[in-house]
C-alpha cells in the first residue's frame, strides 16, 4: 500500500502553525534585551518582528513550468488488470516517470500545511530548491491519460494553494497589531518593574473650567529582517506629553484655525508671527504649567512650545504655504528643535489664495519623501495628516508630526 510521505497539504494544520508562530514571536519579544526594547523605536521593532514572523504566501509560477521523463521500475503487483499469480511480493516492469516541475515563490513549508478547507484526497509531490515536483508513473504511452492525470494533480495543488493563501492573508495582516500588543505589554511591565510609569508622562493639568467652546460656539521573496539598531546603555526616562493631551492640543489648534477661516478679513494682512499669536491665548486658557502660568510660549519667529527642563516636548510651527521646498525646510526646522525622545509636533500651514485641493495633494508625498520620515499614520481630519519622523541624530527617537492645513485668504 502506498504511504503518505509524499502527500501535500496534509502533515500539519495551518491554524496550529500560525498559532505557534505567534507564540515564537512572543517568546522572542519577552526575551529581548530590556534596554534595547526600551531604547529602540517602537515602530521599527514592530516592523522587524512583523517581517520576521510573517509567512510568505505561495505563488505558483505557471509560465515557468516544464516536464521531463525518466525510465523507472514500476511495481504492478496491485494492478488488477494484469495476470499475476503471487501478489504478495513486488512485481516490477519497465515504465516511465513523467514529472511536472512547478517553480514557486513563498514559504515552501506551506506545501505541508492543511488549510481550513481541504480535500480528503490531497495531491502528491515533493519540494526541492523552490520547485514543486508532481510525478506520475506510466507503463504505456497514452498522452491523453498523462495529460489528464497531471492536470488533475496540478489543479488540486492550485486549489489548495488558494485555500492556504486565503487563510494566511488575514493572519499576516493581523500580525502587526499582535506584535504591537506584545511589545507594549512587555514595555508596560518593564516600566512598572522600574517604578517609572508615574514619572514618564509630563504632568500637565487640565484647568477645570476649560472647554472647547471658545470659538464658534454653535456653529491615517521573503528577506530575513535585521533587528533595528539600539543603544545598549541603560534606559533613561524622559518627559513625554500624554497622547490624550496631544490630541486635545491639536483639537484646540483646529478650532482656533477654523475661527480664522471664518473671519478672513480680520486676519488677511497678518504674517506668520501674528497668526501664531492667535493660538497662544486659547491654548494657555486650557493649560497651566508646573511652575509658570504660561505653558505655551513663543520661541524664535513662529514657534509654539511646551517646555520641561529647558527642552521642548511639544512644538508647533506656523507657516504660510510657499511650495514643496518650503514644506521640506519647515520639517527640517521642526526636527532641529526636537531634543526629547518622544517629542510631539504640529505644522500649521496657512493657505493664501492658492488652490487648497492642490496644496493638500502635496503634503503627504513631500513629507514621505523627506529623509527622516518613517511612516504615515491614519488621520481622519479632511485637511490634516499625521506622520512618524526619526530624529536626524538618532532614528530611535521618534517624533509625531501632525500637519494641519487651513484657508486664510489675503
From TrEMBL:
It comes from the Bacteria. This is Uncharacterized protein. It comes from Halanaerobium congolense.
Amino acid at each position: 500500500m502506498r504511504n503518505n510521505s509524499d502527500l501535500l497539504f496534509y502533515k500539519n494544520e495551518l491554524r496550529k502553525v500560525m498559532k505557534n508562530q505567534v507564540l515564537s514571536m512572543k517568546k522572542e519579544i519577552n526575551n529581548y534585551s530590556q534596554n534595547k526594547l526600551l531604547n529602540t523605536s517602537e515602530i521599527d521593532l514592530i516592523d522587524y518582528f512583523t517581517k520576521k514572523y510573517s509567512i510568505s504566501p505561495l505563488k505558483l509560477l505557471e509560465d515557468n513550468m516544464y516536464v521531463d521523463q525518466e525510465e523507472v521500475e514500476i511495481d504492478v503487483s496491485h494492478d488488477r488488470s494484469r495476470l499475476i499469480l503471487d501478489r504478495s511480493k513486488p512485481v516490477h516492469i519497465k515504465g516511465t516517470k513523467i514529472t511536472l516541475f512547478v517553480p514557486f515563490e513563498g514559504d515552501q513549508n506551506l506545501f505541508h500545511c492543511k488549510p481550513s478547507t481541504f480535500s480528503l484526497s490531497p495531491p502528491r509531490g515533493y519540494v526541492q530548491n523552490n520547485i514543486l515536483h508532481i510525478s506520475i508513473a506510466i507503463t504505456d504511452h497514452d498522452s491523453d491519460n498523462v495529460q489528464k492525470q497531471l492536470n488533475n494533480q496540478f489543479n488540486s495543488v492550485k486549489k489548495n494553494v488558494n485555500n492556504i493563501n486565503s487563510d494566511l492573508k488575514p493572519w499576516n495582516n493581523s500580525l502587526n497589531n499582535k506584535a504591537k500588543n506584545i511589545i507594549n505589554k512587555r514595555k508596560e511591565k518593564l516600566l512598572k518593574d522600574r517604578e517609572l510609569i508615574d514619572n514618564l508622562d509630563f504632568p500637565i493639568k487640565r484647568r477645570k473650567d476649560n472647554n472647547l467652546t471658545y470659538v464658534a460656539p454653535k456653529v491615517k521573496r521573503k528577506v530575513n529582517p535585521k533587528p533595528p539598531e539600539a543603544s545598549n546603555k541603560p534606559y533613561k526616562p524622559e518627559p513625554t506629553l500624554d497622547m490624550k493631551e496631544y490630541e486635545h492640543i491639536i483639537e484646540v489648534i483646529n478650532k482656533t484655525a477654523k475661527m480664522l477661516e471664518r473671519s478672513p478679513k480680520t486676519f488677511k494682512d497678518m504674517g506668520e508671527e501674528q497668526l501664531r499669536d492667535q493660538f497662544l491665548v486659547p491654548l494657555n486658557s486650557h493649560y497651566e504649567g508646573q511652575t509658570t502660568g504660561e505653558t505655551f510660549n513663543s520661541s524664535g519667529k513662529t514657534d509654539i512650545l511646551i517646555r520641561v527642563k529647558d527642552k521642548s516636548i511639544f512644538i508647533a510651527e506656523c507657516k504660510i504655504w510657499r511650495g514643496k521646498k518650503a514644506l521640506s525646510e519647515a520639517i527640517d526646522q521642526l526636527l532641529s528643535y526636537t531634543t526629547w525622545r518622544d517629542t510631539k509636533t504640529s505644522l500649521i500651514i496657512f493657505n493664501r489664495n492658492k488652490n487648497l485641493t492642490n496644496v493638500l495633494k502635496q503634503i503627504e508625498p513631500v513629507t514621505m519623501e523627506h529623509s527622516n520620515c518613517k511612516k504615515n499614520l491614519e488621520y481622519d481630519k479632511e485637511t490634516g495628516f499625521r506622520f512618524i519622523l526619526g530624529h536626524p541624530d538618532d532614528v530611535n527617537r521618534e517624533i509625531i508630526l501632525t500637519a494641519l492645513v487651513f484657508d486664510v485668504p489675503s
